[in-house]
Backbone:
């Protein structure tokens, strides 16, 4: 690709430029609205309070329902003896396959240890070893033990518990639960003037309403429900990314969707959220085997079963194809009953609830959608290109993940970049802007097409992609986009899924190479001359249009020489 070349798309159908929704029946005001209540959203809210007047947190379900509470492995930071931020930085850059933003990665790894200590001071109880030191484990792509964990394999749940407790102890932060963020209100210059919400069910407010505000912080998580099988909860329907796209924001690196290698396989008809078998299980010694019992990761990568996630997911997929099987196996029997019960109680209970006892049996595993490395493009301080719109956590693309997120860097990203937003946002708050007349074309897609959208994405835009499959996916998505539906939460979510799918498939079609978590069977090699950069997608007249932007080169080898 040439620098900054713009490539239109052949998507024949158009996407809504705003969601069709009734006129707001109620209104309120805040200084800052935070959308989302995981580690990123609650950290932003807690750190903004007292600095900006009224902070309003909006969450689609209850406060604890997002992705954070499902995180098992932990949170990565250079906390152990002998470890350094530089070594964490190198592992992050290597996993990111040449397209990380080096400055963002530097911020992540250098500010990470302090941010984790603050989380501990807030009340999050991490696991400690017998000598009283923080207990640290290892996951794929890390060359050190640097993953702090809690409750064995319940790290996210413990962090979420501590953050929710802190929010509940801060009555000055208003919380609206069961509220879907519909669209941004913009002024005549395209800057944030507020946000419309649909509040579901009980409470003082009901139905669509408008919140006038001076800034919005998106922390609404990922897009896992775009695919038929995912580790993400049901709320992860890409709402924040879709809302931002409709408001003129740039979405970056969308094609880099991480498929977690070891998601428990529950059979061909199992859809929606699937049980994760944390990489930390392999970090503690478990290994993959095929149907003949062969340890197929050995010899594939120096880190074998703990190679970066994309390498393991590809190896599993290849072996599944070679053997004509729908899954491979994880062998963790040698860890023993006592270790399983102490170190991985949640995974043990979940596996047993599905009829597999990991203490005595192999666990069937297959890759499934796990994490969106891309999202709303932000700078080092969480600012998007839309004035007044910030983004943090999985909804954002801060540049730290590149083409493949390093394990357990996601909780850390939410923590570090929410702190950064809280550092700059108060000084950047302008006066309340007046919402202009909204000329965007409204629409909504029928809720009933959701399973078909997910099937298209899974079959044609999943782990293994090709030009033919991607072209067919975009045709099919255009058909879904042109299927009108009735206003309501299910249809709005489906519209968001279709919009994000179309943008993702567009970027995936244009990236004619294999890099990180983007795997093209028709372009199996990484092509640094052509594609060492990012596809930025915006919505133009209802169509996703991508622009290629080269990445600054990162000299990982030189850094490796310094660090090791
Ligand atoms: C895992 O525990 O394997 C997931 C951790 C992560 O996604 O970073």
Residues:
């Amino acid at each position: 690709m040439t620098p900054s070349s713009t490539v239109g798309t052949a998507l024949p159908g158009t996407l809504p430029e705003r969601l069709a929704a009734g006129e707001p029946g109620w209104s309120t005001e805040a200084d800052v609205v935070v959308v989302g209540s995981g580690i990123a959203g609650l950290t932003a809210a807690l750190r903004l309070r007292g600095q900006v007047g009224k902070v309003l947190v909006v969450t689609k379900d209850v406060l604890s329902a997002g992705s954070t509470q499902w995180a098992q492995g932990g949170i990565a930071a250079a906390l152990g003896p002998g470890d350094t931020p530089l070594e964490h930085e190198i592992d992050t850059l290597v996993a990111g396959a040449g397209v990380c933003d080096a400055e963002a990665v530097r911020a992540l790894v250098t500010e990470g240890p302090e941010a984790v200590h603050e989380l501990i001071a807030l009340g999050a109880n991490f696991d400690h070893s017998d000598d009283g030191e923080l207990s640290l484990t290892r996951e794929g792509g890390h060359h050190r033990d640097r993953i702090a964990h809690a409750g064995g394999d319940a790290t996210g749940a413990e962090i979420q518990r501590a953050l929710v407790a802190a929010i509940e102890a801060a009555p000055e932060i208003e919380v609206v639960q069961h509220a879907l963020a519909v669209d941004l209100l913009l002024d005549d210059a395209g800057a944030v003037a507020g946000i419309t919400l649909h509040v579901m069910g009980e409470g003082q407010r009901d139905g669509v309403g408008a919140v006038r505000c001076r800034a919005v912080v998106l922390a609404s998580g990922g897009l896992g429900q775009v695919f038929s099988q995912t580790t993400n909860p049901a709320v992860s329907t890409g709402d924040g990314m879709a809302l931002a796209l409709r408001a003129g924001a740039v979405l970056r690196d969308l094609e880099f969707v991480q498929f977690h290698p070891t998601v428990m396989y529950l059979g061909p008809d199992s859809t929606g959220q699937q049980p994760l078998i944390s990489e930390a299980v392999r970090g503690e010694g478990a290994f993959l085997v095929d149907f003949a019992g062969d340890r197929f990761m050995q010899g594939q990568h120096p880190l074998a079963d703990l190679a970066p996630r994309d390498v393991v997911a590809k190896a599993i997929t290849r072996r599944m194809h070679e053997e004509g099987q729908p899954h491979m196996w994880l062998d963790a029997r040698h860890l023993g009953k006592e270790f399983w019960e102490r170190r991985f109680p949640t995974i043990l209970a979940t596996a047993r609830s599905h009829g597999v006892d990991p203490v005595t049996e192999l666990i069937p595993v297959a890759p499934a959608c796990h994490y969106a490395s891309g999202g709303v493009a932000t700078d080092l301080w969480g600012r998007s290109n839309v004035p007044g719109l910030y983004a943090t956590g999985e909804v954002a693309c801060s540049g730290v993940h590149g083409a493949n997120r390093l394990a357990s860097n996601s909780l850390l990203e939410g923590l570090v970049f929410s702190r950064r937003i809280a550092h700059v946002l108060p000084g950047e708050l302008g006066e309340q802007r007046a919402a202009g007349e909204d000329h965007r074309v409204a629409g909504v897609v029928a809720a009933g097409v959701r399973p078909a959208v997910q099937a298209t994405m899974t079959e044609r835009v999943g782990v293994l992609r090709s030009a033919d499959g991607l072209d067919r996916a975009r045709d099919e998505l255009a058909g879904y986009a042109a299927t009108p539906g009735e206003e309501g939460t299910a249809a709005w979510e489906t519209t968001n899924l279709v919009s994000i799918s179309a943008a993702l498939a567009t970027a995936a079609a244009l990236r004619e190479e294999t890099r990180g978590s983007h795997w093209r069977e028709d372009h199996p090699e990484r092509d640094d001359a052509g594609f060492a950069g990012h596809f930025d997608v915006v919505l133009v007249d209802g169509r996703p249009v991508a622009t290629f932007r080269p990445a600054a080169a990162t000299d990982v080898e030189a850094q490796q020489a310094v660090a090791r």
User: Anything to note?
Assistant: The two ends are 35 Å apart (CA to CA).
